[in-house]
Design brief:
Elements lengths: L5 E7 L19 H4 L6 H22 L4 H4 L10 H4 L37 H16 L3 E7 L8 H10 L10 E9 L11 E9 L8 E8 L24 E6 L12 E7 L11 E7 L13 E8 L2 H4 L8 E5 L3 H17 L10 E3 L1
Helix pairs in contact: 5-6
């Protein structure tokens, strides 16, 4: 049976055309009919950059330099603004040590050798990509298991690039690459993963989970038998699903601040969020099964957030009312859609009794 609680939806009500996907000049919209009205072209950018280059050349000539490389490190050209010279804080500052030129050779003041980012040591390059390549090429479903530690950052990102490149950006059929992880993931776990990739983490993750999610699926759940109360325990860090454009996310536990900031297409279910949730959100759907922090929906201009709560009076003070309207769900089909998302959320953290496809160890 469904719990006897009221659902409240938060949606855009801003009376400016740009924020209603009806921009009359075709700039702030995804509507193909309206985008045809946009009069801009790449040539305008070329002209703009040409003007900037010309302006820079004139400034360089005034200073007696022929290139920006010659100008790098010329600290003797810096001057304190007259407007702050007599300020009681600024007038006693001595910046001579900060502006000291340690090297006389100008060639050492700018790029002189390439950085070694040790890409071969990253988790994707060491373990994920080589293991997944056969399945990317054959498009046959596979389940792979790995263990993580919090120094493993951006897990899945480079794999997503390989998939996008191999499929011309279309991704793979849903759940083709199923990756099951255990442990504590570092920053940007599952960021930018495309369609066809499902990443399941049994454990917890740091900030920026699912950043730029592009069609993939992210599931995070606590370890069983560890005495962790997922209803009140933060299982992922801050700024999760920042700038996501598509895909699904199911978080068995709460998230930190700025959950789904600038989300434009991700459908996510979480059991509570910190401050500034759904900030600048422009699309997608977010279901929150618990508490929200203050300043919720600040700058939100699209999409819908659904909040399950017993008392609307406790929710309203935490919502930024500048751009949104809050009301209970009246439409049955909309309510059914919310409950379908919750059902998928519940099923996502229930482990299957028997795997449907081969299980491999990465």
């Amino acid at each position: 049976m469904r719990p006897h609680r009221l659902w409240y939806s938060v949606f855009d009500l801003m009376m400016r055309a740009c924020h209603l996907d009806s921009c009359p000049v075709g700039i702030a919209t995804q509507n193909p009919k309206l985008r045809k009205k946009f009069m801009g072209s790449p040539d305008h950018i070329v002209n703009f950059m040409t003007f900037i280059a010309q302006d820079i050349r004139e400034h360089l000539a005034e200073l007696g330099y022929r290139s920006l490389e010659e100008l790098v490190g010329q600290a003797h050209l810096l001057r304190v603004k007259k407007s702050v010279q007599n300020h009681w804080k600024a007038r006693k500052l001595d910046l001579s040590d900060l502006l000291y030129q340690a090297e006389s050779d100008v060639s050492k003041r700018h790029f002189s050798r390439a950085q070694d980012h040790h890409m071969e040591k990253r988790f994707d390059d060491r373990r994920l990509i080589a293991t997944c390549l056969p399945h990317i090429e054959s498009k046959k479903p596979a389940r792979l298991t790995f263990s993580l530690k919090n120094s493993d950052r951006t897990v899945g990102t480079t794999l997503g690039y390989v998939i996008s490149k191999a499929t011309s950006g279309k991704g793979l059929p849903e759940d083709t690459i199923n990756l099951e992880f255990s442990g504590s993931a570092g920053q940007s776990f599952a960021s930018f993963i495309p369609k066809g990739v499902t990443m399941i983490l049994t454990g917890d993750a740091n900030d920026y989970v699912g950043k730029g999610l592009s069609g993939g699926k992210v599931i995070i759940r606590p370890e069983e038998g560890k005495g962790v109360s997922a209803d009140s325990q933060a299982m992922i860090g801050n700024v999760a699903f920042f700038g996501g454009t598509g895909g699904e996310a199911y978080i068995r536990g709460t998230a930190g601040g700025r959950f789904c900031v600038r989300n434009s297409g991700v459908h996510a279910v979480v059991e509570g969020v910190g401050e500034n949730g759904c900030e600048y959100m422009t699309g997608g759907k977010v279901v929150i099964l618990g508490e929200i922090g203050r300043n919720f929906a600040a700058g939100m201009s699209g999409g819908t957030a659904y909040i399950l709560h017993d008392e609307i009076t406790n929710v309203l003070p935490r919502i930024n009312p500048e751009l949104v309207n809050v009301q209970s769900i009246q439409d049955k089909s909309e309510l059914d859609e919310v409950y379908k998302m919750i059902e998928r959320h519940i099923s996502s953290y229930r482990k299957p009794e028997s795997p449907a496809d081969p299980l491999e160890l990465g």
